[in-house]
Amino acid sequence: MSTTSRRRKFQRPPGKRSYRKLFVIAVEGEKSEPQYFAIFNDQRLMSQQSVIRVNCLKGSSDSSPLKVLMRMKAQLRKEKLKSSDEAWLVVDKDQWTDEQLTQLYKWKKESGNYGFALSNPKFEYWLLLHFEDGKNITSSRNCSDRLQRHLPDYNKGIDARKITRDKINEAVHRARRRDNPPCADWPHNLGGTTVYKLVENILNG
User: Fold this and answer.
1) pTM, entire model
2) What whole-number distance in Å separates Cα of residue 155 and Cα of residue 188?
3) What is the number of domains present in the chain?
4) DSSP 8-state assignment for residue 95
5) What's phi and psi for 154, nearest 5 deg?
6) 3-state DSSP call for residue 191?
7) pLDDT tens by residue, 134-151
8) Domain presence at residue 157
9) Is residue 197 part of a domain?
10) Which residues lie closer than 8 Å to 48 by C-beta, 6 or more apart?
11) How far apart are CA 37 and CA 202, in angstroms?
12) Dihedral through CA 28, CA 32, CA 38, CA 43, nearest 10?
């Protein structure tokens, strides 16, 4: 076999990427958010061969915005981001004050590949948008009750079979439509979420 033939044999197929874009996501919750974002590591969900990797740093029952930020900073000290990678903080509005959330927003502005996504009143609102328009949310409890209609076993975990690519696309569309005009920092009123911005970036790879 000639030298030229051997070189051809070991060439990387055209269109292949040797590096999978990394999304580091720090969240408040211990269960719902990590289960949801794990779905994006399943290549069966993606319309093409997955070129992304999602690393979700799960929270705890007493997570505060500052603790979410601290977990992210600790992770980034261990795992350096490439310029094409992204790091996102994902939190709920719930009872947190604007002062607490401002710390996360300031961190986001430190780098072009940092992101900050918030759901008001909580992450379950983003999940609700996979199934309905999410209008007239009156409280955190109301949000949970409405989600329960679509995911009756939600308390036991997210049924990944019900989070299809079409449902995700619908949630992105609904959230973007409600975020009009786009909020400068985070949704201050009930019934808003900017998680769609993160999900769009993941889907686009």
Assistant:
1) 0.88
2) 27
3) 1
4) T
5) -55, -35
6) coil
7) 999 999 999 999 999 999
8) yes
9) yes
10) none
11) 10
12) -140
HSE at residue 201, side-chain half, CA atoms within 13 A, is 22
6 residue type, one letter: R
Q: Domain of residue 116: give its range.
A: 21-204
Q: Shortest CA distance to 44 belongs to which of 151, 165, 159? A: 165
pLDDT digits (tens, 9 = 90+) for 106-132: 999 999 999 999 999 999 999 999 999
In whole angstroms, give the CA distance from residue 140 to residue 182. Answer: 23
Distance CA 167, CA 84 (A): 27
7 lies in some domain:
no
End-to-end CA distance of the chain: 39
* DSSP 8-class letter at 88: E
- Whether residue 8 is contained in a domain is answered as no
> In whole angstroms, what is the distance from residue 107 CA to residue 47 CA?
32
